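Protocol step 4 of 6: structure prediction from sequence.
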Amino acid sequence: MINDKHFKINVTSEIGRLRALLIHSPDSGLGKVVPSKAQDWLFEDIIHLDTMRKGEYDYYVKLLMYFLDDAKINGRLAEIDSSENERAFYKPDNKNFHASNKVIEFQSLLTDILADEETRLKLVASVCAIESCNYRLQEQLTNTNPVDLAKVFISGSLSDGKMIFAPIPNLIFSRDIGIIINGHVLINKPAKKARSRETLLARYIFFNHPLFAAYQDKIIEIPEMEQYFLRPGEDNDERTTLEGGDVMVVSADHVIIGCSERTSASGANEAIKLLFENKVVKKVTVVKIPHKRDYMHIDTIFTQVKRNVWVLLGSLAITKAAVNEIEPISWFVDKRLKDRPEIIQFFSDQQQPRHFKSLEELLDDISQVDLQSTEPTKFIYSGNNTFPFDAREQWTDSCNLLALKEGVVLGYDRNDKTVEAFKASGFKTVKVTKLLQQLENKKITIDDLQDLLILMPSSELSRARGGFHCMSMPLLRDEI
């Protein structure tokens, strides 16, 4: 049982030093995505699970451990990576699992709550209802031990490998299941049926795990709009949906919510009302972006690096014409101008909403006003703002970065032009393999790191269409 009497949740920014987060390591369900169902399960491609684990995601876990819980990893790197250990350090069901209460594994929390008989009965019944299981299968799952049952719920397969329902491969994108805003938990409502089970599991964890016992009255659930069931059709476009990739806590009083392919206007509306009613924040800015798979969530087009530095997709941000040609046809063929976001800021005291002309204007206001930056705001653009590299690298998550602390961010190693843009803005870069050895050999400390882009291997992870911002649910950050 992961428990900690000193555990607390509090996130007041995107860049305060990270102290605890919730993740989910790639599970066997990812290796069972088939081409015919890939898009239904929100995947663009078929990944190679072993490479994703050993060659990519394991480095993420190791780096997080050095930053957040170094006592469990320092001096053990060779042992952890030895072939004899068969990745035991990364496996939640293994006795040699790291079991960190700072780098917290979703599967471990699920196993913990399933040990309680009443919770297990309720959750089995709920999963079986949404997955249309028969009565005998429900009885079988009810009598399955918590460790195996957690794996079944996540992978969709029994211990003998038999698939009984679909996997939930998007669970590696833990940001989308919930967001910590100050000391509150905002539980999300997914847009796609493929994510229903993971949201259900997350809801049970937040309401039943001892880690979150002190926050029961601070869990916010997004309701459906009244009488939604009277709307015509099964897949109504006006459903109330909200996903974590569309929510950014940019300061203690200010949250950004994106209206996107995955978050509806009614979802944003309900979230704003609840955040104001519960006095969680004082202002919410809605950023409406094109409902395209290219963008998906707002954190695929911008994330924060420092209080005065942001990385973003220039073609959705700049207010000037996105083309240099003066021929009339240029204005018709360049659709980027038509894709410019709509940005409106709302206030809890009901003052008149404020409009912003561009992302740069909004982000500059956040840096200067909310975060009181004393330096000019700087923008680092995807692909160095050069076509076609801007679009190519945004597709492989050049704008989807996770800040471990202010100025130290994780990104994919494949986005070369974006890396050039970081260097031109005064940042250093380092491959994660080199950094881990430096940390292990004590040639450098976490406190030494500043203005740094850490380059992570990404051939398989990038196929899953999400970066490290997506693959993290921060639970605790230092205030800045």
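Step 5 (inspection) to follow. The two ends are 32 Å apart (CA to CA).
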